[in-house]
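Quick one, T. Sequence first:
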Amino acid sequence: MEWYLLLAFLALGAVVGIAAGLLGIGGGAIMVPVLTSLFMVQGFAPEQVMHVALGTSMAAIVPTSFASMRAHHAKGAVYWSVVRNITPGILLGTFSATFLATYLPTVVLAVFFACFMAYVALQMWLDIKPQAHREIPGMAGLSLTGLVIGSISALAAIGGGTLSVPFLMWCNVNIRQAIATSAGIGFPIALAGTLGYVFNGWGQAGLPEYTIGFVYWPAVLLIASASFFTTRIGAQLAHSLPVATLKKLFAVLVLLLSAKMLASLL
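Structure tokens:
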């Protein structure tokens, strides 16, 4: 690997970690478009570049989502009954959607990602917080919800927080528990997504060296090692920086990165 690519993956991990700690945002919104550009520079096959970016992003989220889940659990804020009941749907939806992603062309995946990121950016810019309208549904309702959240998360390589937090708040869960419970949901999403992209990419012709399935492991290791340290820095900065303003700037960044990725693939 060229030295500038090594630095680029480390820098990406550092930014992802700070954003996660500062804004509570999963890394996929940044990782997927940046990884797509870096993989194109490396000469990855255009028809596979989006799939490898999604799989690699999912794998890089696994350690940070696990650490986040443990941290929230230590504070006693995770609503574990919700995590337990929603996880079967999460696992099924996330793993199944990786099969769909395998058969979708790169451009279709990129368009879906860009559209979903536009929704995420709008949610952040307007600071939308849904009002409570109902109670938490039973096993069947949570399983169906998990199926939807998991499917979308797999196609956009996100930890699901942009969907699970609003859903939990809509179900009368306070914001602190909603964020903590979302962290508990994010780990099975990342794990099932990683396994799905490894399984579906296994044996695919034309994949670059050091990939297992659709996961490019050198990038995973570099991104995860950097984000592990910078997540704590972001969490500390959250107490001294104007988070509301930074969320709006981050929303603009997400839109620009998604638009650039889409333009380069089209």
